[in-house]
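Progress report, Aim 2. The chain analyzed during this reporting quarter is listed below.
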Amino acid sequence: MTTRPILLFVSFAACLGLSIAQPSFAQEPRTAGTQPVQSDESDFEDTYKQLNLFGDVFERVRAQYVDEMTDKELIETAINGMLTSLDPHSAYLNEESFSDMQVRTRGEFGGLGIEVTMENGLVKVVSPIDDTPAYEAGIQAGDYIVEIDGEAVMGLTLSDAVEKMRGKVGTDIDLVVRREGLADPIDITITRDVIRIRSVRHHIEKDSIGYVRITTFNQNTDEAVKAAVDEMKKELGNKLTGFVLDLRNNPGGLLDQAIAVSDAFLDKGEIVSTRGRSEDDTKRDNASSGDIADGLPIVVLINGGSASASEIVAGALQDHKRGIILGTQSFGKGSVQTVIPLPGHGAMRLTTARYYTPSGRSIQAKGIEPDIIVEPAKIETLAVRRFSESDLRGALDSGKEDDKPANDNAEEAEGDEEEKPVDYQLLRAIDLLSGLSLYKGSAMQEE
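Predicted structure tokens for the chain:
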């Protein structure tokens, strides 16, 4: 056999940061009745054997596989296989993928507009991004993508599936989706487009409640949230009674932005801790003084599409009792990925720690449980014939000739008005804030 495999695995060891220097041969001390401790020499020999195995397999594949593969393709596939076998979020990013990731964090990129993960061999939608082609086409959080342009997803890596969903702006992609509660799969065609993410939207509800919607955590989110709150405070003044912070279908994003947004509403205390493999890897982030909401009540909306950074914000506000969490259980993505550039070879995304809320709860695979569980629901207006005093035979009038029954034209008005879908979870949040406002106002009057 040629020396190529040996050169290969030595190079591969260097890429992994493995030391191939000669180890110390000093024996570990032993005591009677104990098992011998494995020496550094034994560790080195085991690693050497495994890398030699890798070199042998590489050479066999390179020489005998039915289709010719380049050395670069084989090495990248081997590295990606090693990383993706660890967990769904670790992966190798080639130069193109690394560049795409950097563009996405800046808030503009091309594609469908969905955040995905891999589960049971299928691509699972964490959440669609607001006002993107996937959102407009009806893709929902929790959907499983089983086919992409007629090709089965089963057997593909997440990177392969994502690559197939990418394409030229303006081109169509055909997806087959399975959705919980539906027996038959759904065929969905989506036209690719440039995705421009507006991470924060806001408006006034019921003339007194500030609504802030965060769709993702990119590098502009913190400043956008502060600007939105400041604008509504100036517009409403003393009429402002509270805020709704909508994190539904927010797939996450940058950790520092999640910390900054949490800090904006907290006056003190821990926001989140990240704990890695060793105690030295533990990091705690604390809030600085100042609350942009001035202590007004906050209701935070979450659902199964709320993941990662959005769960950090919800968990921090919940543990500090700064906000009431309303909706359904969040996604449960509580792991930290560190992107490590590999000069000349893209980067690797490696899971290096787990997130913990201020009270010490792990988010991973558990998510955030709402304080008030409100499932999404459809509200329908029932056509009920109501009787009042004016309907009784011989009923007295009000004494004013210009008074008319208020419901004379009710049916006509209802027929002219187009029925609009009602966001039941948001409605409940607004009702809750309105109730808190009334209670607070009543308490102040009694004092």
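Confidence is low (pLDDT under 50) at residues 1-37, 408-417. Residues 105 and 218 are 5 Å apart (CA to CA). These observations will guide the mutagenesis work planned for the next reporting period.
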